[in-house]
Structure formats: C-alpha cells, structure tokens
Amino acid sequence: MKLFNKAFLAACAMCLSAAIAVAQPATYPDNLPKDYLSQEFHAGRRQALRNLMPANSVAVIFSYPERVFSKDVNYVYHQNPDMYYFSGYKEADAMLLIFKENQGTGDSTYNEVLFVRKRDAGQEQWTGRRLGVEGAKTRLGFKRVYNGEDFAKFPLDFKKFSTVIYDEMPDAIGSDEGLAQLVKTFKAKVNVPEVDKGLMADLTLISQRAMPANLTRLMAYIKPRLDGDAYKSNTLIQELVNKPDSATLMDVKAKIKLAYGATGAFATYTTALRGIKTPEELALIGKAVQISSLAHAEVMRAIKPTSGEQELEGIFMYIHKKYGAEDEGYPPIVGAGANGCILHYEENNVPKVDNQLVLMDVGTEYHGYSADVTRTVPATGKFTENQKAIYQLVYDAQEEVFKLCKQGVKYASLEQKTVEVLTAGLIKLGIIKDAKELRTYYPHGVSHHMGLDVHDKGEYGGNLQEGMVITVEPGIYIPAGSPCDKKWWNIGVRIEDDVVIGKDKCTNLSADAPRKWQDVEKMAAEKSIFDGK
C-alpha cells in the first residue's frame, strides 16, 4: 500500500492552516424576532430572586447539558428554563451566580456573575454562533461575564456565605471541559453531598406538589420505586410509606425542606416567581397558545378517516412553523381510537385513523414558552351518540371548573369539582356504580401550571392567584376490556384549554380551537387548506 508522501501532508497542513485563518468569529445578526424577553425582564427576575433570598446568600444556576442524537449530532439544544428565566442565555456550558448583597468594594462591586461558553471560530462555523463574553454583556446586559474555564480560579470563597442555594446538579457528561468541569469545580468548592438524582427529583416533587387531595396518586407513583436502594435507605420516604396519611405528608414535606435546604430553597423561590407570570410572559404564552389553537382548528378541517396520525401531526407542525414558533412544547400526541386512551401516546404511526375519535394533545413552543392544548375530534366529522355522550360529560366538567378559575379559590377545589361532575355523569351513563371506580376512567389531574415548562413551576397547595397560567383538562378514557358495556370501549376524550387566572374570572387563551361538539362538527365541515384541488 502506498503511503502519503511528505509533499501531500505538507499541502494538507497548508489547507488546514488556511481554513483556520479564514474562520473568524461570526457576528450576531440583527434581523431576529423583536419580541424576545427583554434585558430588563431578566434583570427584574434576578432582583425578584434577591428579594426572596436570605441574608448573606448566593444562588447558583447551571445550564442544561447537551445530548447526542446520533453519533456526532446533538439534539436541538434546550436551555434550563431557570437559566433562561434569570439571564436570557440560551447556550450550554454556563453558570450564573446571583448574590443577595454586593460583593467586593468600591467601583468593583457586583451582585451577579455569568460564566459562558467560550467563543471558538472553528466550532462556530460548524455549530452556530456563540455570544461569548462580550455578547453576553451587550445583548444580555451583564457587567461581569467570564468564560466558563475561568470559574476554577475565580476569587470567591463559598464558605463565607451563610446559605448557598442551588438546584439539583445537572447530569453533565465528561470530566475536563464545559458544563462537566463547572459542576465538578462547584461541587468541590461547596462540598455538595451526593444524592440519588431520581430520589432527589421525587423528594422535590413531594415537597412542591404533594397534597392530601392527591396523596393516593402520589403513593401509587412512588410504590414501583421502593425497591431501589436509595429509596429503601431514605427515612423520609419510608416514613410516608409506613403511614400514608395527611398528617404524615405535611410532616414529611417540612422535613424535606430542612434536610435538603439548598435545593428545597431553590425550588421554593423559583416556584413562587415562575408561578405568577409577568405581562411580558403572558404575551409570549398567549402567542404560543394562539398558534396552537389555529393549528387545532386547521386539523379539524383537514381530518378524514383516511388521514394518518403522523400526517395530522405534520399539519400541526406546519402551522406552528408558519406562524413563527420554534419548536413543539412536548412530543405531540395524536391518538386514534384505542391510542387515544393512552395518556402520553407518542408513536403517532397509525396510517389510517378510520371512523374513530382522534385525541390530539399538541402545543407549540414560542420563544421558550409552551402551549398545552387538547382537542378530541371524530375523523368522520360527526360524533356518534356514544362518543357525544362522553364528550359532553367532559365538556360539562370543564365548564364547571372554568367557573372556579379566579383569584382566591383553592387550587384543590378544581380537582374536587372535576371528580364530582365526572362521577355523577359516569354513574348516570351506567359506566360506573360509585365514586371509587372513577379513577379507572379518569387517572390524571385536571390542571397544572404552564409556561417555560409545559408542566411549569407553580404553587399547588394554596389558592389561585392573579397572573397564574394553568390548564383545565378533564378527560375520560375507556380502553377495550374495561368493566363496562362494550359500546363504550376505545372512546378516549380529553378537552384541554390554557387559562389566565384573573381577579373575578379566567381568560381562555385557547378559545380559537372549538370546544363544543356542535362547533367541532361545524369546523370539520369546512374546507382545509390541505384538502387540495
């Protein structure tokens, strides 16, 4: 085999050098959308966090890691919503420090520091522009910005703070660069205790969302995890398992905050802030929901028995992109017939939906904020009498819950009203005999907060507050084999809308997607832009 000669290798080296010389840091374009969150918004959120933090404390927030999609190609990057909320920074390999009090003396004082991904002209030519230090200063409004690699030698002694507040550590891959190095260095400087990530996530879930009203569902969620060593050895989990009542739950919630103070405090503060949306946020959420609602309406027009689940998903995605949405808020759910009875069905691969109901839970993401809209539509354009009966029951439950969606109402009352209406309706239809059977057909809750996460941070244990954005999503699912008359089998119905809580009533952001069965049928009779000639 002939080897490459020295002349050939020299020529390759010259080409490589020329390529490196040509690759210059790219400038950020100015022709981007003008309705992103402003510098002032992010700065205001940082100050709001300081106002909640205790004296002599520092909050630490990391970016999310990147993940490989296929060999050397990554998934489209999605920033840690908390990092984005407090900084506006959208790239990986970053760390934000927010101090309660000013640090340093004289003209060099500061109360926040951002560490960012270093600029690299060669990498930017392949994977896109980076803000870098100067970009973060000019575009995000930070005064103190450094490259991530500078954190190891940054002159800051964390031991001087009474409280270091941080979320659970991101699962960064690697050991010598980027996010992995930031996390490793931080853990060493603060002496962060190692806690099983799954256990920590569940302890946070219990601390933030568990209530007496959902204790039964919580225990059903925890039970399959109890064989894990981390769960067996955790006294708080075992305390709740051994005595799963309301008093024990509240005691365990308090103990979680004491035992895991750093992450518990972070969750408490960020939940309080992100649960109430500002006018800037409401504008972006409103845009996301409006785009999603237009897409649902168009799919109602386009759906036919010959449509495929994936084809319908494609219509949603086209409409979303057409009106400027960057991504989907979550994997789209397009389930025909039996698939509509699977709560998080995501395959969407049935080639013909036939003469069935199609449950479509699809919401877009616009500038980081997610919609969450569900409609259930007959592929024929007409509901059968049995389908109509279930649909009307779900609609009635949603209407009753809407009446409660106003400031001062207990969040738990939304679920109580849903259970009341659905139970009475299913008993009347002969599908169940008493309330104990309801969860067979209604296995989820009626509402959750939404925003930067589709299941966003927000308070569930108290009262609704003006500025909250929540879903209202009752549903009934009757898979084949259910203990009821076969005429109901494979009927799955969910109607989900996104509402803003006001002082005296709520505003339904997703009203552009028809909800009444009569209006759904009317929309289905209209011509779609996808019908062709």
From TrEMBL:
It catalyses: Release of any N-terminal amino acid, including proline, that is linked to proline, even from a dipeptide or tripeptide. The lineage of its organism: Bacteria, Pseudomonadati, Bacteroidota, Sphingobacteriia, Sphingobacteriales. Belongs to the peptidase M24B family. Coiled coil: none annotated. Keywords: Hydrolase, Manganese, Metal-binding, Signal. This is Xaa-Pro aminopeptidase. InterPro entries: Aminopep_P_N, Creatin/AminoP/Spt16_N, Creatinase/aminopeptidase-like, Pept_M24, X-Pro_dipept-like. Its cofactor is Mn(2+). It comes from the Bacteria. PANTHER family: XAA-PRO AMINOPEPTIDASE 3 (PTHR43226:SF4). It is an enzyme of class 3 (hydrolase). Residues 1-23 form the signal peptide. Its EC number is 3.4.11.9. Residues 37-175 form the Aminopeptidase P N-terminal domain. Pfam families: AMP_N (PF05195), Peptidase_M24 (PF00557). It comes from Mucilaginibacter dorajii.
